[in-house]
Amino acid sequence: MEQPDTTAPPTRITPFEAAFGFERPVMNAHNEKKMDHANMNTRNDAIADDLAGNPGREHDAERQYRIGDLATEFGVTLRALRFYEDKGLLTPVRQGATRIYSHRDRARLKLILMGKRIGFPLNDIREMLNLYQPASGNKAQISLALKKGEKQLRVLMRQKRTIEEAIDELNRAMDSLRSAA
Questions:
Q1: SS3 65
Q2: How many other C-beta atoms can be found within 10 angstroms of the C-beta atom of residue 72?
Q3: Alpha helices, DSSP H only, in the chain?
Q4: Higher model confidence: residue 41 or residue 114?
Q5: I need a surface site. Which of 14, 89, 137, 145 has the fewest CB within 10 A?
């Protein structure tokens, strides 16, 4: 088994970004690529730098994505990306009819999709994203994310209990049907 590259520079991500999995690659049905440790650190550094308005490497500052690139990478539809743009969550630049997304847009999209997967409404995701202020250590963003995360965890735990109760009830009903058959 290959050992991770320990010579890679430490990842410069905020606690908020770390909490939402910036250290892990996005994996979905449309994107089965695996990244090694050094590549994840490089990508995380670029995302954190871009969100801070500080692209650490020149090529990262120039990196742009077309709508199809992001759609393929994250397994979302073009319509979904246009929807996030209409809602003000993403702000691509237009070159004619082509949408050009920055590294910052890509980082925001990753957080949007993680927030959705956890069950946050888009308004909550927008509110958390808009609080990104690295100069202040993102204290307001982290505080709000914790508050909303705790609330969502309670919602998910209630849903889990409801589902477990439904499964138990269905199992009892199926057992009754099997014994009657």
A1: strand
A2: 13
A3: 15-19, 37-51, 58-62, 67-74, 78-86, 103-118, 122-130, 139-180
A4: 114
A5: 137
